[in-house]
Amino acid sequence: MSTPLVPARPARVSLAVRDSGTMLRRNLLHARRYPSLTLNLLLTPIMLLLLFVYIFGDTMSAGIGGGGGAGRSVYIAYIVPGLLLMTIGSTTIGTAVSVSNDMTEGIIARFRTMAIHRGSVIIGHVIGSVLQSIISVVLVGAVAVAIGFRSTDATVLEWLAAFGLLVLFATALTWIAVGMGLVSPNAEAAGNNAMPLILLPLLSSAFVPVDAMPGWFQPIAEYQPFTPAIETLRGLLLGTEIGNNGWLAVVWCLGLAVLGYFWSTSKFNDDPK
What we know:
Blueprint: H1 9-33, H2 36-54, H3 57-60, H4 71-104, H5 107-112, H6 120-146, H7 156-183, H8 187-193, H9 196-199, H10 218-222, H11 226-238, H12 245-269
């Protein structure tokens, strides 16, 4: 009796890469054809940047050592790293919504009947979201530079390290967002479930130092993924002390990425009810 032919491992890898590329193009086309969600999410960090710089900048800079005419420029430098990471959180909300739409509109059921690599659908979402996150970060960074942000002391190596941290952080949050989209019954619920990804930066050291917060609130700001990532990015771009925040940020990113990966793949591989 003959046994069914099983594709060799190189062939399976080639199939996975090809199908993931196809799904990536599909997601990028969706983002290009329906840009309103991405633009709305991108406007949040830009509006916060302009609000905190031009409305609260002179006042809040007093709490971080600024003062006089230099207060606003000092505060721009302080908040930009946090807003770059908030931009990533905002972008991944769109990923949760997109994944939920795929799950509820029937396209995933159709994909399951086709001869495509099973994990390529999720991989396409993840890679597409990371690319969108980095593009969004570049746009927010350009606005920050236009209103006065400067990083004159950072070396090429520090810029590369900062870019690597942003990509790693975007990957981690994207996997979490994919899981949120998979467990949500509809797109609205997915957006609501992913809201902590944009609320957590507001509870971190993005806008004021942790030491300036009330004592009971400091653990909330300190023991979460955004604060060590913000302090690491701030140290790389502005030359401030990084301390233990560097390895804490990497551990948070790797932990969230692994958790999100296994959560997402487990939910996606569940047979539909």
